[in-house]
Write a structure and sequence with these properties.
single chain, 461 residues, alpha/beta, eight-stranded mixed barrel, 15 helices, 19% strand, elongated
Amino acid sequence: MPQAEMKTGRSDQQHEDDRLAALISTGILDTDPEPGYDAITRLAAEYFQADTVLLGFADESRVWIKSYWGEAVRELPRKRSIFEMVLLEDGPVVIPDTASHPGFAGRRITLRRLKVLSLASVPVRSSDGKILGSLTIFGGQTRGKMALDQLRMLESLADMAASHLELRRLRNSFQGRGLPRASGLSHSPGAWPNGQDMREALERREFMLYYQPEIELATRKIVGLEALIRWNHPERGIIPPMDFIPAAEENGLILPIGDWGLAEACGQIQKWCHDDASNGSLRVCVNLSASQFSREGLADHVEALLLQSGIASRQLGLEMTESSLIPNMRIALEVLGGLRKLGISLLMDDFGTGYSSLNNLHMFPFDVLKIDRSFVGRMTDGDQPFQIVRTIIELARVLGMDVVAEGIETNEQYRLLRELGCRFGQGFLFARPMSAEAMTQLLRLPGRVIPELETPAALCD
């Protein structure tokens, strides 16, 4: 064998070995089809009016189908498959008429059940560009010449799969290094506070809202606020939510406390608008608990608060974690649909720490993903946490959502987030959570722009 051919052979084998190593690191092989990818194949089928859509990842000999639309397919031989055509082209493959395509006749046998007449297939790549799989549509709008915007749409759907796969890989790896998962807290029986303590706190109006500004990172302008509940206990002082919210959940008091928080936030928005008309552009976000979604009347309750306070629906945002929606998906979807009709902004909080999936992201009408502070706080510690943040930002871009990075505390985190294209953020670098009175003074800064100071958090001390 000539030396040049030997080098080429070794190069091809090394490329394949690297590709397989990247694929294995995702943990996607030898697993059952995953519902999290069904949103992608469903969207592709609807957009292209396709007969069949397949999303698969290829090892040495097989193409494992992780999601399909139409014809049910579990796996395909890799030899002479569409995947090999995509791998050879290192890019999209579009075949309007397989009968007249010179290189397709021998491949028809692997897809005989699909009665393939036309197809379009695009690669699903790893973060460093290796082709791990492909997204393929059969029939539909592939029967004619595919327009450039159609091809880009198919590539965007493949990017969704790639981002979801990368986030899964990074999260699994990072959690193996000690990243905590989101988990519920247990409140010991007999511990303080009990139900009576919190009922009395409601009656005495001891609960209060603190506010932390949400910043447009490019300009440092305050564009929104997150409302954060505190308990101003007459003897114990200011008590953070993690010290009483779990008990409120267990004692059934989270609903009246949550209702109080919503009403208080709406009333405060009204006061800030009266103080300065330009504050009408602010969005104040309130965290909602899982229990608040057990009531189908939540949207009606929010609408009544909007009418009572006289504020616009765009001025209110509601934050929730995915885990708060899972217990009753049907009711959650109905409630969120009602809130969306009102024009309320919907934000998924703590994204990346639990079991968030593309399926749920598409199912629920969210506008914003909030990157959990545990990722932001470690993004300068190494490549993996940095890549998680990058992947979440890219995933949100593909899904058409905004991103808010939580827990920004250093200028280096601030710089990296801007470079990654993250538009919004909040954290101690700009301001700590503060009382409504202190926030009123902060909102009076010229242009609502927080200046760069050596210790920015001193603004709210």
